[in-house]
Amino acid sequence: EAQVTQNPRYLITVTGKKLTVTCSQNMNHEYMSWYRQDPGLGLRQIYYSMNVEVTDKGDVPEGYKVSRKEKRNFPLILESPSPNQTSLYFCASSQRPHGPGKTQYFGPGTRLLVL
Amino acid sequence: AQSVTQLDSHVSVSEGTPVLLRCNYSSSYSPSLFWYVQHPNKGLQLLLKYTSAATLVKGINGFEAEFKKSETSFHLTKPSAHMSDAAEYFCVVTVATDKLIFGTGTRLQVFP
Asked: Which residue on chain B is closest to A50 by alpha carbon?
């Protein structure tokens, strides 16, 4: 089954404790991205990757890191989480380029609480 | 610059009545437009997409949307709401880049 998986689905942590949220897709997609969803703000892009070893900042990259060593995996790293990073996070993937016909597939989401 | 505005943050309808979720966009180029749905505690699922073919686009679960260039709108409609339609809906625009721009979402409530 074609899918995007994220782990963990729920995470409670404390300020400053490094964490990683994993994302994996089995559709051989070149493009992957991370979003955060906050009430009243919709989804905002954190980072994206057009292919292996190619990553770039989205609209809200501060406090986050990513890596793309393999095509299928795109982990999101919070080196020193802070309470304002409490949010719902989604990973997504698609074929490139975007535009007509290219749909993004979303993971189930990771709900993060930073105390 | 590209942007998308969802005109209603909440919409409430009775079961069996029509649904209208409004979306306006701004784009310097010919856009591709999408509607995604998010059910509680779930990820986003594609409802339908406009990609410069037919202006009336049919999606899953009886939803459809009409692209109106003159009004820069892409409103989502359904003739008869079902309880299972209660969810949050996102209008999304993309142009010839690798970037999606999401609206802030419309929460649809369906009352029995």
From this structure: B98
Taking only the tens place, the pLDDT of each residue in B19-64 is 999 999 988 777 889 999 999 878 899 999 887 778 899 999 999 9
Could you count the other beta carbons within 10 Å of the beta carbon of residue B52?
13
pLDDT above 50 for B102: yes
A21, A47, A74, A104: best mutation site toward chain B, by most B Cβ within 10 Å? Answer: A104
How many angstroms separate the CA atoms of A30 and A26, rounded?
A: 11
Q: DSSP code of B16?
A: T
Q: What is the CA radius of gyration of chain B?
A: 13
**What are the residues whose beta carbons fall under 8 Å from the beta carbon of A14, sequence distance 6 or more?**
A81, A114, A115
SS3 B41: coil
